[in-house]
Design a protein that fits this description.
By secondary structure, the chain is α+β, with helices and mostly antiparallel strands. It is built from two helices and seven strands. The structure holds zinc ion. The site of zinc ion has 8 residues, from loops.
Length: 127
């Protein structure tokens, strides 16, 4: 289950970001952007995130997963389309296919409670 190592790196990243928000800061919610090619099972990811977050400042945070569709483009005719599984040949002209999106694995945003106000902050970073 590769979700566990992904979850651990996400928690590490959340901890790193929260360091800048003071000692009381904790994560309220974490949004991940995951491309279809990453083959991440959302339920497994949520379970692993919860486990990995135990004892960290991400403990109890809600994990939101944004699925990014796999979009490919034909290098020959320029046609692009969305696929469920990667295709290597253009259905129109049999040209070679390149991947436009679907490889994403990004820590998109973190909702932070700094322990004082209702202040929250969003940040974007590579996971
Ligand atoms: Zn084509």
């Amino acid at each position: 289950m590769h979700e566990m190592s992904l979850a651990m790196s996400v928690v590490d990243e959340v901890e790193r970001v929260l360091t800048g928000f003071g000692p009381q800061a904790r994560a309220v919610s974490v949004t991940l952007q995951v491309g279809g090619l990453r083959a991440v099972v959302p339920e497994a990811m949520e379970f692993c995130f919860e486990a990995a977050a135990q004892g960290t400042r991400a403990q109890g945070a809600r994990l939101d997963i944004e699925q990014v569709p796999i979009v490919v483009r034909c290098g020959h005719c320029g046609h692009d389309w969305t696929v469920e599984v990667i295709e290597f040949m253009c259905p129109a002209c049999e040209g070679p296919v390149q991947v436009l999106s679907g490889k994403e694995l990004l820590l998109r945003s973190i909702e932070v409670d700094d322990g004082h106000d209702d202040y929250s902050s969003r940040t974007e970073d590579d996971a």
